[in-house]
Amino acid sequence: MVQLTDQKPETELLIADVLKSLRKSPKELPCKLLYDERGSELYNDICEMPEYYQARTETRIMLDNAAEIARLIGTNCLLIEYGSGSSDKTRVLLDTLEDTAAYVPIDISKEHLLAAAKDINRDYPGLEVLPVCGDYNNHIDLPTPSKEVARRVVYFPGSTIGNFDPGPAVEFLQRVAELCGPGDGLLIGVDLKKDVEVLELAYDDPAGITADFNLNILRHLNNDIGSDFELDAFRHRAVYNEDEGRIEMHLISEVDQEVTIDGVVISFAEGENIWTESSYKYSPEGFARLASKAGFTVKHVWTDEKNLFSVQYLTR
Ligand SMILES: C[S@@+](CC[C@H](N)C(=O)[O-])C[C@H]1O[C@@H](n2cnc3c(N)ncnc32)[C@H](O)[C@@H]1O
C-alpha cells in the first residue's frame, strides 16, 4: 500500500502566483503549471521524440555507468527524488543499488506521481515507497522511513535544474544541501551547451508535441482555477537565447484578447508573449561553479560520446 503525503499548495496560492506572474512585463507563468496529469503524459511523449535527445541520452549514461554510480552511492541509502515524474530513470538506480532503505519521489503532478509510485511499489517488492506531492520551490517535510538509513542521496534527473534561473538554482541547491550531511550526495542530470539547431528542434518538434505541452499550461489553468484562456488564440514559440545560454518557451497571443482569472481581467495584445519555461544549458565548468555557490563539490561527471548531456555526482 502506497501512502501519498500531500503538501501541494492550495488553489488560492496558485491563483495569487498566476496573477502575480501575468502582471509582470513581459508576462510569465510558472513552469510547474505545465504539469498536471495531461502535462505529465505529454512530457512522456516528448521523451519519445527523436528530436528530444535529453531523455534517451541521460538514460543511456545511467545504464552505461550504473555500477560505478551505485558504488559511489553505497548501500542502505534513502533515495529522495525531486520532480520524479514517471520515475523511469530511477529504475536504473533501483536495479543496481544495494538495499535501498526507502524511495521518496516528490512531484507537483499528484495523480501521475501516485500512479508512478504504485508502479514502483509493485515492481520493487520490499522497497518502501513514500511519495510526496509538493512544490520543490517551497520547504517540503520528508516522511520518515521505517528502516535505518546509512545516507541520503538526492536524485534530480531530467535536466530539470535548467528550469531555474541561476539565482533560484543556487537557492534550490542550498535547500538540497541542507538535507545532505557528510557522505550524502546529489545525483543530477545536467543538459550541456550545443548547436542552436539541435536545441531549438528539441523544444519545437515538427509533430507539435512540445507545442501541445506548452499550451497545456493554459488548459491546466482553465481546469484548475476556472480561467477562460482560448487555447487556439495562442501559439508556441521556442528560441535559444545565446547570451543567457537558455532555451525560452513562450506562448504568443494571436489576437488582441482578454482573459478572466478569478474575476480579474488580463489583456493581451496581438503578438504579446507569456514566458512559460526556461531551460538553461551548462558547460561542466559552469555547472560546477553554480553548484559550488550552494556548497557542493562535483565528484564525478559522466557524459555520452557526443557530449550532449551529463549526469553528475556531487557532495557537500
Ligand atoms: C522535466 S520533467 C522530469 C521528469 C523525470 N524526472 C524525468 O527525468 O523524466 C520535470 C518534473 O518535475 C515536476 N515539477 C516541475 N516543477 C515542479 C515543482 N515546482 N515542484 C515539484 N515538482 C515539479 C514535473 O511535474 C515533472 O514531473
Roughly what is the average pLDDT, rounded to an integer?
Answer: 97
Query: Which range does the strand content fall in?
Result: 25-35%
Q: Profile the largest sheet.
A: 8 strands, mixed
What structural class results from the helix and strand content? alpha/beta
What is the count of DSSP helices, taking H or I runs of 4+ residues?
Answer: 10
The CATH H-level superfamily of the domain at 53-194 and 282-315 is: Vaccinia Virus protein VP39
Radius of gyration: 19 Å
Assembly of the depicted chains: single chain
Shape annotation: globular
CATH topology of the domain at 53-194 and 282-315: Rossmann fold
Order of helices and strands: EHEHHHEHEHEEHEHHEEEEEHEE
Uncertain segments of ≥5 residues (pLDDT<50)? none
Helix content: 25-40%
Note down, in words, how this protein is organized.
By secondary structure, the protein is α/β, with parallel strands linked by helices. It has a domain at 53-194 and 282-315: Vaccinia Virus protein VP39 (Rossmann fold, 3-Layer(aba) Sandwich). It is 36% helix and 26% strand. It is built from ten helices and 14 strands. It has helices spanning 11-22, 37-48, 53-64, 66-73, 88-96, 110-123, 166-179, 196-202, 209-225, 284-293, and strands at 5-7, 27-28, 77-82, 102-107, 132-134, 151-156, 185-191, 234-241, 246-253, 257-261, 264-268, 273-280, 297-303, 309-315. The strands form three sheets. An eight-stranded mixed beta sheet has the order 1-5-4-3-6-7-14-13, sandwiched between helices. Strand 3, helix 5 and strand 4 (102-107) form a beta-alpha-beta unit. Helix 2 (37-48) packs antiparallel against helix 9 (209-225). The longest helix has 17 residues, at 209-225. The two termini are 35 Å apart. The mean pLDDT is 97. Bound molecules: S-adenosylmethionine (SAM). S-adenosylmethionine (SAM) is lined by residues 32, 35, 40, 43, 83-85, 88-89, 107-109, 135-137, 157-158, 160.
